[in-house]
Amino acid sequence: MATWKEIKRRIKSIKNTSKITKAMELISTVKMKKAQDLALEKKEYIKWILEVLMNLNWSLSDSKYFKKNSNSSKTLWLIITSNKWLCWGYNVNVMKKVNEYMKSNWNNIDFVTLGKRWSQFITRTWNKIVADFSGSFTDNIDLRFSKSVSRYILEKLTSWEYWNIVIFYNYYVNTIRQISVSRDFLPLTDSSIENYFSIILWKEYKYTNDDMILNYTIEPTIDELIEEVIPMLIDSMFYDILIQSKASEHSSRMVAMKNAKDNANKYASKLTLQYNKARQAAITKEVSEIVSWVESMKD
Fold it and tell me: Where are the alpha helices (DSSP H) in the chain?
């Protein structure tokens, strides 16, 4: 059994850990609130983008952004994880979703990674990474960085190197709930847009003819619309994905650090009780020895 001095040192160590986790919780709370506000602000905008793309899909189905490449069997997977640990099941849930998806789709896959956790895993498993943006993937997501990644994967699609592009990430629902999702990002098919709608609305969504807007006036030409506006809308969608991912990461880390802090405080309280008992036992023993010594001197 540990002495009261050893227990005291352990209590001090645990309380220091509690202070550290509390500081990390506060930092994650601030970062999460910032990412959360961005995600909620852009939600309605993204819904409008999806409605526009769904309407355009009826008339631009032969465009390179809306049509799957039947001449290629290769798939590009973009995996978004964190650069750091200590974020509960954030990375694990994404990896589980990838493994689940891989059971039925495992041939001819190349990877693009954002986050060191997944890039390190891919390296260890000898899979092919065609691009790794982890080094520039920071907490403060810059629009230029987001655009550089979205344009990279867009170029991969339009060069007909891959037949589709799938993204794996965590979608932010609320502070304590984030869901790992896998969805076809490009090309912009009916099913991929409906799937994104379902994720945003948190319920199954099916687009019907009643939802269509057929009176678009396109200026100056359809070709210029395709080359200028469609990539811009895709950039906005991808930026939203990065924001959702970051909000989920900070929320997960905040909850993880709060749980760690609470557990540390509970364990410190438990050890304090043990410390008091051990110290009381030591004092009682010393008093007993003194009394025995006094009694022996009387004899």
Answer: 4-59, 90-102, 116-124, 143-158, 190-201, 222-224, 230-298
| pLDDT of the residue at 81 | 92
- Do residues 211 and 286 make contact, with C-beta atoms less than 8 angstroms apart? no
End-to-end CA distance of the chain: 35
What are the contacts of 39-45 at 24+ separation with CB within 8 A? 39/172, 39/240, 39/243, 39/244, 39/247, 42/236, 42/239, 42/240, 42/243, 43/200, 45/236
Task: Please state the φ and ψ torsions of residue 161, each to the nearest 5 degrees.
Answer: -80, -30
pLDDT at 167: 94
User: Rounded to an integer, what distance in angstroms lies between the CA atom of residue 286 and that of residue 261?
Assistant: 37
Strand order of the β-sheet with 177-186 is: 129-132, 109-114, 75-80, 164-174, 177-186
Residue 243 is predicted with a pLDDT of 92
Structure tokens at 131: 């691009």
- Tokens representing 253 are 């880390």
Tell me: the pLDDT tens digits for 155-185? 988 888 888 899 999 998 888 888 898 888 9
Given a cut of 50, the residues of the chain with pLDDT beneath it are none
The rounded Cα 95 to chain-centroid distance in angstroms is: 11
Can you tell me the distance from the alpha carbon of 157 to that of 65, in angstroms, rounded to the nearest whole number? 8
In this structure, are residues 99 and 134 in contact, taking their beta carbons and an 8 Å threshold?
no
**CB–CB of 166/76 below 8 Å?**
yes
Q: How far is CA 236 from CA 140, 150, 179, 229, in A?
A: 16, 9, 21, 11
- Average pLDDT value over all residues in the chain: 84
Angle at 70 between CA 205 and CA 159, to 5 degrees: 95
The domains located in the chain, with CATH, are 42-248 (3.40.1380.10)
Please tell me the predicted confidence (pLDDT) of residue 112.
92
